[in-house]
TrEMBL record:
PANTHER family: 4-AMINOBUTYRATE AMINOTRANSFERASE, MITOCHONDRIAL (PTHR43206:SF1), AMINOTRANSFERASE (PTHR43206). This is 4-aminobutyrate aminotransferase. One of its GO terms (biological process) is gamma-aminobutyric acid catabolic process. Belongs to the class-III pyridoxal-phosphate-dependent aminotransferase family. The gene is ABAT. It catalyses: 4-aminobutanoate + 2-oxoglutarate = succinate semialdehyde + L-glutamate.
Length: 414
């Protein structure tokens, strides 16, 4: 099988890479894995202090992947990464509001019975089409499919429109600029209105590309201006890189494409990073131990594998490989939508993080099935999109092979 989906973008350097096999079979690592399971302690890639006590300082040797952040908190998955990042934002915001990290006796008393002021009525702003996870806080910021949220109580938090761009982008620059301006104005208006009614917007959460919601893109200028709005109103800015991080866009983090000196306050990750967690500024580190805590605080045995993955990405120059393979992929998708305009549209992508729309959901699902039966694993997103998420070792000849098989599957639809 040619896997162009990789467990929803979760396999960084393919199956059975020799470097990872070596890590798994090294007797020294067998001992290390046992110790990491029992005593989550010094993790050579991500940390240099015990996560149970004080969060973690990012190791300077891993600046390749830290994006300039000074601290990291490991978690097990994308949902718990975002869930705990939300908590860090609320703690930071309350400390800022009261002017001290020390709570009042009334706040301490009311917090354990779910009442204000100990449990403040703060909010997070999210965007339609966003997906941030399946825990309760994350579901309140997830706006994709009803099946993910149905029958589950949620928080009443503000939701802004995400730009719905028209394609090809170069033919609709004026219309898309107006659409992005409308969404930015709406987001800022929501922040102002919710602050005025006492339900302060402590933070804004957004994906660099809305993956689960349909591979929805916005311009880099949109994110630059949104970042400016969060600074203007004192909101934290959380960039959810769970699916976009790890190199598939041609940069290690998709938000690096924005070209900002200060693109985020917190960046969450998982999937290609093999473990979960979030990078954060010093100011978002809780002032006391155990405020952000769970039993394992991530799977620290995965750091052994992640260390090797980072080495492979560097030595095999896989970020540039993603750019080259992505160019072949995207050009091929453009050709296919020109060849089958009644079936395909809106080819889009950065690096190998690509997608294309099919005319309707049923046809999309049938095309996925036909491709699978021909040996290609693909996945859908949104209502009618196919998303492509190959591993970083996906090369140009893999892209050509995929495009040939995909064309055959489309031909069978006719």
């Amino acid at each position: 099988m040619l896997d162009v989906y990789t467990q929803i973008a979760s396999i960084p350097i393919g199956y059975n890479h020799p470097a990872l096999t070596k890590v798994m079979t090294d007797p020294k690592n067998m001992c290390s894995m046992i110790l990491y399971c029992v005593i989550p302690g010094r993790c050579t890639l991500l940390t240099d202090s015990n996560p149970r006590i004080n969060g973690m300082k990012s190791n300077n040797s891993s600046s390749y992947m830290t994006g300039g952040f000074s601290r990291v908190q490991t978690m097990a998955c994308g949902s718990c990464s975002n869930e705990n990042a939300y908590k860090a934002i609320f703690i930071w915001y309350r400390n800022k509001m009261r002017g001290t990290p020390e709570p009042t006796p009334e706040e301490v008393r009311t917090s354990v019975i779910n009442q204000v002021p100990g449990c403040p009525d703060l909010t997070l702003l999210s965007f339609m089409g966003g997906f941030h996870g399946r825990t309760l806080g994350c579901l309140a910021t997830t706006h994709t499919k009803a099946i993910q949220k149905l029958d589950v109580p949620s928080f009443d938090w503000p939701i802004a429109s995400f730009p719905q761009l028209r394609y090809p982008l170069d033919q609709f620059e004026r219309e898309n600029a107006r659409e992005e301006a409308r969404c930015l104005e709406e987001a800022e208006d929501l922040i102002v209105k919710w602050n005025q009614k006492g339900r302060h917007v402590a933070g804004v959460v957004i994906e660099p590309i809305q993956a689960e919601g349909g591979d929805n893109h916005a311009s880099f200028d949109f994110y630059t201006k949104l970042r400016g709005i969060t600074k203007k109103h004192g909101c934290a800015f959380l960039v959810d890189e769970v699916q976009t991080g790890g190199g598939s866009t041609g940069k290690f983090w998709a938000h690096e494409h924005w070209g900002l000196d200060d693109p985020a306050d917190i960046v969450s990750f998982s999937k290609k990073m093999l473990t979960g967690g979030y990078y954060q500024k010093d100011s978002f580190q809780p002032d006391k131990p155990f405020r952000i805590f769970n039993t394992w605080l991530g799977d620290h045995t995965k750091n052994l594998l992640l260390t090797e993955v980072i080495k492979v990405i560097k030595t095999e120059n896989l970020l540039d490989q993603a750019k080259r393979s992505g160019k072949v992929m995207l050009e091929g998708l453009y050709d296919l939508q020109d060849k089958y305009p009644h079936l395909l549209s809106k080819a889009r992508g950065i690096g190998t993080f690509c997608a294309i729309d099919v005319k309707d959901e049923d046809t999309r699902n049938l095309l996925l099935l036909k491709a699978r039966n021909k040996g290609v694993v693909l996945g859908g997103c949104g209502t009618q999109s196919i998303r492509f998420r190959p591993a970083l070792v996906f090369k140009e000849h893999h892209a050509h092979l995929f495009l040939d098989i995909f064309n055959d599957a489309i031909t069978e639809l006719k």
